[in-house]
Amino acid sequence: MVRDVSSSTKHTVDTAACAIAAACLLGVLLCAVLLLPLLRRKDSLFAASGIGRSITHILFATLVHGVLMAIVNTVWVINVGVLSLPWARYFFAMSGYLLPIWLFMSNIRLALERLWLVQYSKSLRCAYVYMVYAAGLAWSSFFVAAFVLLNDAPDWLFWPFSLPGSKDRLINTLFLMGMAIFPVSCVAIVAIYVRLYLVTASVLSAARSEMIESDIQSSNESCSSMHVDESRKETQDAVAATVTQQRTVFARCVLMAAGTVVLYVPTIVYVMVRVLVAPDVANMDDLNVWLCIVLNVLPALDVLYTPMLIFWFQPEVRRLLAGHVINTH
Question: Are 102 and 140 a contacting pair, CB within 8 Å?
Fold first, then answer.
């Protein structure tokens, strides 16, 4: 979180931390509710699919991330001194980067799984899945190297991202190289969902054209005006359905990409700019405190946003959850 702040500012930060901890715990509960049927029915067709496994990874990463954010904000409020311990500061600082990397890589995998299913009608190859997570693991080494080279524990600016608090050029260079994974991942996620929408729109447009051609052909072959009217009405309904599907796919792609961009990019940009411009964060004014509060809230909202979005857009998850509830009772 922050240090060297006045008592009034500490009260403001404490209030925000309490709200963040409560939001994280609620998100953790939602993730657990959705994860339970996926894990208990992991042999089901959906849970065993590439998309099902990707969603399981996302939910689990979000759950762990939410638990740690709730712990850190609670510890900050009760002020038991845990965050002053070097091992605790290093642990939470490293977790604050490794968990989002896992989450971002799982989101890239999910986007690729959706694209492969629409474009090639099959699941993403295991080799590509391994490449995605291997890239995240390799990029994590920059953070590990940066924090290992630090003589002092990382400065606690805010969670989930903490600054190195060093003017050493090598440490900051390694840190920024590690941070590059987040904008690269955001661009990749947006690009994949744009591609997914274009492919889906193309498939739906082709299907719509086939229906119209079929309608024209049947109209030419039919002698009954009643039959022609019925056929035309069916075609119009089918075309309207494809347009609705296209809009639904567009909304889904926008919301899936927006969650990652809106809730993480502001924090990522601030961290990178702060390291470049003012790496020593020991002195913090009220403006920075408010900024840190906002940038602490945004990633915490993802703990709520992700399970709600999965529940809303994945009918298979809802069916597994409903089946689990019915079987339980």
Answer: no
pTM of the entire structure? 0.84
Confidence category of residue 305, pLDDT binned at 50, 70, 90:
very high
Residue 164: C-alpha distances to residues 69, 94, 146, 173, 285 (Å):
19, 11, 8, 11, 19
Measured CA to CA, the distance from residue 211 to residue 213 in angstroms comes to 5
Q: Which tokens in the block code for residue 155?
A: 């400065």
> What pLDDT sits at residue 63?
95
The whole-number average pLDDT for the span 71-79 is: 83
Distance from C-alpha of 266 to C-alpha of 268, rounded to nearest angstrom: 6
- The answer to whether residue 236 scores a pLDDT higher than 90 is no
Which residues is 163 bridged to in the sheet?
155
35 HSE (CA, 13 A, CB side): 17
What does residue 308 show for φ and ψ, rounded to 5 degrees? -65, -40
How big is the chain by its Cα radius of gyration, in Å? 24
| CA–CA distance, 32 with 95 (Å, rounded to integer) | 20
d(CA 150, CA 131): 30
Q: What are phi and psi of 123, to 5 degrees?
A: -75, 155
Q: Whole-angstrom Cα distance, residue 307 to residue 321?
A: 13
Strands (E), 38-119: none
